[in-house]
Amino acid sequence: MEKQPPREEMKRALGLGSALSIVVGTIIGSGIFFKQGSVLDSAGNSTMAILAWIVGGILTLTAGLTIAEIGAQMPYTGGLYVYIEELYGRVWGFLAGWMQVIVYGPAIIASVAGFMSILMTNFFGLSNEWRVPLAVVTILAIGFMNMFENKVGAAFAVVTTIGKLVPIAAIIIFGLFWGHNNALGQTVGEIHSASGNFGVAVLATLFGYDGWILIANLGGEIKHPQKVLPQAIIIGITAVLVIYTLITVAVLRFLPASQIHTLGENTTAYLATAAFGQIGGKLLSAGIIISMMGTINGKMLTFPRIVYAMAKRRDLPFSRYLAYLTPKAKAPVVATLFIIVLATILMLFFNPDRLSDLCVFTVYCFYTLAFFGIFILRKRNGNHRPFSTPLYPWIPIIAIAGGIFVLISEVINDPAGVILFIGVVIVGLPVLYLVKKLDQRRVEKALNIKNNNLKK
């Protein structure tokens, strides 16, 4: 008998505005501000760098359109974890959830916080030794905020999303209208050297676009999810695609490619000061820091929901505690603490750039499986669906091709990192076996006690 989704206990309090703010706020974080140099180096010239951001956005949009149809049919807390389990069974579903709560979620939070701390140390004039402490304090503060009712985190998402539009608008307007460089046609010779290729450049942009699917983890807390979830995903990704393209053109208009290559991760901080002076640069940097805090907030709001969903199915050790919700706010406080601890550990052992690339690879393994799922659901459910992906089957096919491209590119460019992260995911199998074994013993013990009582 097929396992039914768990009974929802969280509050359906999030409307389209909150959902859209979470999508945009979760996507626009560190990637667009810190990946300009690496995308340019890999692409080889400025024209191909701009194209890489556009292609990355189109691939993300096809993925979003595909998942929108799937998510509208499974509007439950847990998102990708629930989708994979319903499509491929218990084991694959568990691995999808395990990947997100042990690898992807904590790593992506640690990565964004690590990038943010670079700006924070520059902003406060501190040495590099302060980067990790500042990142850890930020994670703790935002995690604590998300231990209250989901409206608190959603409200913070709305505020930071509006706040991040200020530095974005400033960069776009200043670069486009006051920049003196031609954004197109700056060649490899001006960059001095190029690493990777166009495929690697697109892969780097996908970190900047990643996070759109996290709204699906809140499926059990969204009002009218069959309608709102697809709208939030599609409108959000489209808006980000336009914003990212404009930012890239603006940066290339204001700074020559050779300087972006030299500055690397410090490109945005330098641009802010050069364009607006010391005070204006500080204000712009503050806006970008707030933007990144909003991204961390979106991830801290969504990933504990996966932990909660898995714990409700008794798929994790200590599920009884991880599934705990506060009586009034219905907030998964223990699950949130769990994510905070893992993110802090990863922060101490990995640099943010490496984490960002490996995060994309790990999650795309399961994204690609989910993309195939649209064909399974069409066969299983026929025409009974709240939302239909346009241009079917071409949109899902492009999404699948993009997913395969990401996986192959990362295997070629970082085989050691791929093996490490796959190994961590596979470790989940014996964990599942042990958890189920202990759960079975607990049930048998309870039945024996009940039978003994009946005999008495």
Automatic annotation (TrEMBL):
Subcellular localization: Membrane
Membrane disposition: Multi-pass membrane protein
Protein origin, superkingdom: Bacteria
InterPro entries: AA/rel_permease1, AminoAcid_Transporter
Ranges that cross the membrane: 12-34, 46-70, 91-118, 130-148, 155-178, 198-220, 232-255, 329-349, 355-377, 389-409, 415-435
Cross-referenced Pfam families: AA_permease_2
Keyword field: Membrane, Transmembrane, Transmembrane helix
Name this protein carries in UniProt: APC family permease
